[in-house]
Give the backbone structure.
Amino acid sequence: MQDLLELLKNNPYPGRGIVIGKDRVYYFIMGRSENSRNRVFEKTEDGIRTKAFDESKLTDPSLIIYHPVRAMGPSLIVTNGDQTDTIRDAGDFRKGLMGREYEPDEPNWTPRISAILHADGSFELSILKRGDGRCVREFFCYEGCDAGKGFFLSTYQGDGSPLPSFAGEPIAVTMPEPEAVWNALNAENKVSLYANVGGEVKLFNKNLGD
């Protein structure tokens, strides 16, 4: 099991990331462009949404404005794009994602990462990424995990041009407190963090002074 804080501190640009465990879920976004950095998380009735911090500077909203977190009955969906709505509308995690693929942002072809946490503590993670010109859909199902442990999945392995997609299975990591996770993210590139600990939600937004 790796130390999540060290993992984040040593990676200046994992992009967007999901960490899911027994009693908590984290989702963060990072950005390199002005458009990507011009965002905040805002609570909604059933989760959160991304919103432009300065509407006058918003250029292309297609891949940056979405609902990262939504409830589906007693389950919680967490994703890095509008596939959140696809899953919810399908009423099934796998079924919803089988009709989606990676983002059309050549040359990066950003993977779509998704997770669902069920009421019984079991959870699933998925990554949809490009491989040999086709979409590779990977699913990882867990019956649950011990307290203090989680699984980490991000869009990228690190910085680069083009950005290298995450590879391998979700990484088993420690589950530190929300403030420590926020502080471990690269200060220049971090944008927002969603933290759900035992059902209590806290949002961190760099553009709001966090």
